[in-house]
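R.M. (postdoc): so does anyone remember the format we settled on? I'll just put the structure tokens first.
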């Protein structure tokens, strides 16, 4: 009887999908080799909700709430990201590990830049909106760079 592979939610850009805001990718071959014994389940809430390419967004803290806000028109883009994340995890209930793209307003686990309403940097340890859903579901979650630092053989 073969052992079931663990399911890993992985930012699609790290797999080489051209889904970044600028229609480029963040292919990470070293990370993919570390995860070769896992079943990879790609995700990209921003591409799904807003298409590619798209205007950039930042994490903005307002009254102790963090939101994803468009740099083009200051529109709050949080709801479509949260909706995608909730649907994703409902459709993939066996996810055991979440690996997000560092510094992403959607996918960063603890490396997102968070600004105040006037765009002053508050801190650089923010959690992206989809990563927050993974953490709320108590899924082991890492930024890709930190995962590699801690798991490279």
């Amino acid at each position: 009887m073969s052992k079931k592979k663990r399911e890993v939610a992985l930012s699609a850009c790290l797999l080489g999908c051209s889904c970044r805001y600028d229609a480029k990718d963040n292919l990470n071959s070293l990370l993919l080799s570390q995860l070769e014994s896992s079943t990879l389940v790609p995700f990209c809430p921003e591409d799904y909700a807003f298409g590619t390419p798209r205007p950039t967004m930042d994490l903005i803290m307002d009254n102790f709430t963090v939101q994803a806000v468009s740099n083009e028109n200051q529109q709050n883009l949080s709801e479509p990201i949260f909706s995608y994340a909730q649907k994703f995890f409902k459709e993939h209930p066996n996810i055991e590990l979440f690996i997000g793209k560092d510094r992403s307003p959607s996918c960063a686990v603890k490396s997102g830049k968070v600004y105040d309403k006037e765009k002053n940097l508050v801190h650089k340890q923010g959690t992206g909106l989809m990563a927050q859903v993974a953490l709320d579901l108590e899924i082991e979650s890492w930024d890709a760079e930190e995962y590699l630092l801690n798991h490279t053989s």
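R.M.: ...and that's the designed sequence above, right after the tokens. Also worth knowing: The first helix runs from residue 29 to 34. The first strand starts at residue 7 and ends at 11.
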